[in-house]
Amino acid sequence: MNQLILKKITQNKHAYHEYFIEKKIESGISLLGWEVKSARSNMVTINNSYVSFYNKEAYICNSIFQSNVTQFYNETHNSVRVRKLLLKKNELLFLMEKVNQKGYTAIILDLYWKNSWIKVNIGLAKGKKKYDKRNIIHMHKWKKEKIRILKYMK
User: Fold this and answer.
1) Is residue 134 part of a domain?
2) Rounded mean pLDDT of the chain?
3) Positions in the chain short of pLDDT 50
4) pLDDT given at position 52
5) Is 140 buried (19+), middle (13-18) or exposed (0-12) by CB count in 10 A?
6) Domain-located, residue 80
7) Which range marks the domain in which residue 36 is found?
8) What is the full DSSP assignment across 79-90?
9) What are the coiled-coil residue ranges (predicted)?
């Protein structure tokens, strides 16, 4: 049987702190050969990457694929180039409509292998205020304290 194999390449942990993630969409990504090699060696950074739209197509901006390939035939490897996302038409229209609303943005959450394909998780996000971040930190502290108290109660 064909088993589904998922292996994380990188994750944008900063996004979960800065944004409320309202919806996640899985997408393919168009990469060059040397970019796939750098993804195999985990030389990818997606911390500040986001999705932009141009001519009814979605592109990833600010993702960095570091080149570890020696350059042949005077090729230049642009590590910060804009990469095309492979989305279905209804997913693309949904994202474009939501991003045009005030306060929403589309950011990259994960980059991972799905069998032999590199996939991207796109998060439809709304920014957090400073007091939201403080409340979440207090809730996490309280959960840890509650577990500690219940452990000593038994």
Assistant:
1) no
2) 86
3) 1
4) 92
5) exposed
6) yes
7) 6-128
8) TT--EEEE--HH
9) none
